[in-house]
Amino acid sequence: MVHKKRHAEQYGFDLGVFVADVCSSCGEIFWNEKSVLKMEKKAKRMGIWGLERRTKVATVGNSLAVRIPRRLADFLGLTRGMEVSVHPIGKDKLVVEQPGKEHH
User: Fold this and answer.
1) Distance between CA 34 and CA 10 in Å, rounded?
2) CATH class for the region spanning 57-97
3) Whole-angstrom Cα distance, residue 97 to residue 5?
4) What does the DSSP assignment read for 20-70?
5) Could you state, in order of their start, the residue ranges of all structural domains in the chain?
6) What does the alpha-carbon distance between residue 65 and residue 50 come to, in Å, rounded to a whole number?
7) Digit-coded pLDDT (tens) for 26-76
8) Cα(73)–Cα(42) distance, integer angstroms
9) How many Cβ atoms are within 10 Å of 34's Cβ, its own excluded?
10) pTM for this predicted structure
């Protein structure tokens, strides 16, 4: 193990650079407690801490619908009737984007 500074992110949001132990053979990162607490604090300030939720797929007519929990919808600025674009990234990830918004 080697002490190094590594970049951290959550849900694609940059949390900054923090100290970690990195395996010199495989490169696996092990964050120390102090770094994790700093990451958590920044994620909370950014409003992204705790956004992940489990939800169910429902049937609506001949289509499937994924319910978006209120807190996540509020964070994303989604409202009833809003038009969004939906596309896959691979076979296990679905992206919901608002047309016309700049995406990073």
Assistant:
1) 17
2) mainly beta
3) 33
4) EEE-TTT--EEE-HHHHHHHHHHHHHHT-TT------EEEETTEEEE---H
5) 2-46, 57-97
6) 23
7) 999 999 999 999 999 999 999 999 899 999 999 999 999 999 999 999 999
8) 21
9) 10
10) 0.71
